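Thread: iron/sulfur cluster complex, take 2
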Amino acid sequence: MADMLKLFVNGEEVEVESGKNLIDAIGAVGIEIPHLCYHPALGADGNCRMCLVGIEDGRPPLVPACKTPAMEGMRVQLDTEKIKKIQRDVMELELINHPVDCPICDQAGECKLQDYYMEHDLQESRMRVAQVKKSKNLDFGCGVVHDQERCVLCGRCVRFTRQITGTGELGIVNRTDTARVNIFPGRPLNNRYALNVVDLCPVGAMTSRDFRFSQRVWFLKKDEGICHGCAKGCNIHIDHNREKYKDDVIYRYRARHNDLVNGYFICDEGRMSYKSENENRLTEATVKGDLVAVSEAVHTIRQELSEAKKPLILVSPNSSLEQQWAVKRLATLSGVECFGYSDAYIKEGDGDDYLIRDDKSANRKGLELIEIETSKQRFEEALAECDLLVNFDNDLFRFDANEEMKAVVAGKKVIAISTHANYLTDNGTVVLPVASYSEYGGCVVNEDGILQAFSPVVRKNEELIDVLEVTRMLGGDVSDSGQAWSGIRSAVPELAEVQPDLIPAEGLQLSVSEEAHVSA
Ligand code: SF4
Ligand code: SF4
Ligand code: FES
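Output below.
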């Protein structure tokens, strides 16, 4: 546990973590010091002067809180008339050339400039000279759109491309009121994390072409989730909304801070993967191409399973631990071999040394822990012999067309239990749609051995059953996640002590990995 120290804020004693600057230390106990240029992942730049505070110890009258470490016994003043006046003055300066186009700005509702104006400024503009005009709607590449007039020149976006991605595509050119953020001519943003500048920008100067104008942010329900785009399991906000007469739809993913997993950022591919939760989803159960009720599809699967001479069960590396366990139990009770073969989820060489992983599944570690066979050779042998393949949401040909294996599968009877349409659902005798990860809760273990829990977030008008429920309907003995966990605890020594409700928000490190911790 971090060392604590006591200091006074506006005369009130508070206990804060040592080793932090005043913004972070005091912010952690719920007292916000307004700031624009400081971000914990990027450090203190000290350029906006929005965070000036008073310290009663003979220092200069005001100091920037972002550059001032919290010290034992420090007496910090945030609410004197003098400080309030400085904050109003800084706001006035920021707004001299600002277009104040909040009604048409995507950031309205989550804009620091707007918030601080309401908290600290609230005065009519005294400017009677024409505003400096700058460029709007600039395409910076990677889906980032820049509005120079809204920019407060905090430099966060510029520092992100220099300090985090190391690509340096952005710079601040010119000086004083003609200063502006820009790309170098003909050199747009070109990195796989570029959209983080939209999250980082404290105002509406960096927007996402994908999200802008699609929703007012105050209509969005902002829930927490885990990205299933790769084996890193980055923490995300899932922002979704059910508009009148419509379905619950996800409008964006944003990075959610977790030092143990992804720091403050996520990759662009993961950010945009919200689309696949909305699109190309399977919604109808079919038997031999005819639409049927879910109960009839399940009944037919039961029948097929009991009639097959040599059935084979396949489970997904993207399924939760609870689902994987339930599928394994169903296989054991039915005397059927269970596989987690899923080489097609691996994009060799695609990962990097930051967040992105080659493995595009969220819970391959789960298969390992639960001891579900994943070897290609063993799977191919079993596939060749089987007469029925029951597939629990494993996208067998995801990034690997594997024509040879496809030809073998084509000769088998296939039951496709799936979230999305794919080769197996196109060729399934029975096709059963199931809920995807934003619609159910469970646990996953990332590549670094960090166990994380997530909850159901999206509630579709037509709710789909999840894989665990399907196994129960097929005669499995796992009726819910509580029961799954009592089985998992007794079978998996590494998870013997785990209480899923008590998994810390940042996750539980099961095994030590040097790559696990992200510094930004
Ligand atoms: S675009 Fe946004 S993040 Fe970049 S300098 Fe301007 S205000 Fe700051
Ligand atoms: S690095 Fe992986 S888990 Fe993280 S956001 Fe990207 S795809 Fe998702
Ligand atoms: S946050 Fe301290 S000067 Fe900008």
